[in-house]
Amino acid sequence: MSWSTLTLTYPLWLLLLPLPVVVYRFVPAYKTKQSAIKVPFFNKLLDILGEQPELGASQLQPSWWQRGILIVSWCYWLLQ
Description:
rod-shaped; two-stranded antiparallel sheet; 3 helices
């Protein structure tokens, strides 16, 4: 089978191919809540540790192989 003989039943579905990139770029990341210990001497503790306070959520970051599998599976699903 060569690429010249490839025909698509629904060629408009190819417009969805860049959808993962658009979602990755423009949709805000999901943030997970973290457990925290609340203490009355929080500011003093930060001064001793030399840390800066952060928001109570962290952003999950996929690794390179997870992104690769996502892209391959999306293309497979789209061209199936």
